[in-house]
Design the sequence.
């Protein structure tokens, strides 16, 4: 599972079960994308966690989410930084 954080404006655009792409550094300036699915969204805001790089970003309120990804080749490691891109949810008819 990947733990990520979204801002309040982003919160309204994501849903449980929505697809996401997790991007990791693959070396040599390359990125590797791993597909995932949002499995949990916190119902409570919290201050941005300490590992976030700048003090200005750490004062923002964010919502924690979890994204389930397949890691069959073991490329994802605990604590590894990743980028997340949310795949827009399709409108229901």
Sequence:
């Amino acid at each position: 599972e990947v733990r990520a954080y979204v801002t309040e404006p982003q919160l309204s655009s994501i849903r449980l079960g929505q697809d996401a792409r997790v991007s990791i550094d693959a070396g040599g300036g390359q990125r590797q994308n791993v597909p995932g699915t949002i499995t949990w969204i916190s119902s409570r805001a919290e201050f941005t966690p300490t590992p976030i790089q700048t003090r200005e970003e750490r004062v923002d309120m964010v919502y924690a989410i979890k994204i389930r990804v397949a890691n069959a080749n073991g490329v994802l490691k605990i604590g590894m930084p990743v980028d997340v891109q949310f795949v827009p949810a399709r409108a229901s008819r």
In short: The first strand starts at residue 2 and ends at 7. The radius of gyration is 14 Å. Residues 8-11 form the longest helix (4 residues). The mean pLDDT is 85.
